[in-house]
Write a structure and sequence with these properties.
Elements: E1 3-7, H1 13-25, H2 38-45, E2 50-57, E3 60-69, E4 77-84, H3 93-108, E5 114-120, H4 124-132, E6 136-147, E7 152-162
Parallel strand pairs: 4-5
Antiparallel strand pairs: 1-2, 2-3, 3-4, 5-7, 6-7
Pfam families: Acetyltransf_1 (PF00583)
Domain N-acetyltransferase: 3-164
GO molecular function, one term: acyltransferase activity, transferring groups other than amino-acyl groups
């Protein structure tokens, strides 16, 4: 099974929505579950401070990466959000998609030197992925999110990576 990593384009919008719908059905806690219209994703393609990449297997989008840079061209950092189709997890797709995307961004945007991500402290798989990608834990937001399943508050772990 060959995985293709590339920038998102208009032809990928429908497949992106299918992934987001699947994540919503899973009750995934990622911002993509709130996206319901192609226009919302298409708008990202026209934002100069958005960097969107996908992982594709058998013509199906199985991974989605979004990096958002501050509005100023002087902003040196991007905040990343990533999601993987539940049926394709534990195959190192997230790691490969993150590394591919950050490498491409760094080649094209010389003044972006930092990537940051926030991960819920109970999401061990994502924490391990970030560490495997060379991110460092730089702090946390204490009791930032209420987990309805466990009826407890959990922290956001803040990760960063210097892009060289």
């Amino acid at each position: 099974m060959n995985t293709i990593y590339k920038k998102l384009n208009k032809d990928d919008l429908h497949q992106s929505l299918l992934l987001f719908k699947k994540l919503k059905e899973e009750a995934a806690e990622v911002t993509y579950v709130d996206i319901v219209e192609k226009k919302q994703v298409e708008n990202w393609l026209h934002q100069p401070n958005y960097y969107i990449y996908v992982a594709i297997i058998d013509e199906k989008i199985v991974g989605f990466f979004r990096g958002v840079r501050g509005l100023s061209n002087e902003s040196h950092g991007i905040l990343i959000t990533i999601a993987i189709d539940p049926d394709y997890r534990n195959r190192h797709i997230a790691k490969s998609l993150i590394l591919y995307s950050l490498d491409d961004i760094k080649k094209k945007e010389k003044n972006i030197s930092l990537a940051r991500a926030y991960v819920y402290s109970n999401n061990k798989a994502s924490i391990n992925t970030m560490l495997c990608c060379g991110f460092t834990i730089s702090g946390s937001v204490y009791q930032h999110h209420f987990d309805a399943k466990t009826k407890t508050y959990i922290d956001d772990v803040i990760f960063h990576k210097i892009l060289e």
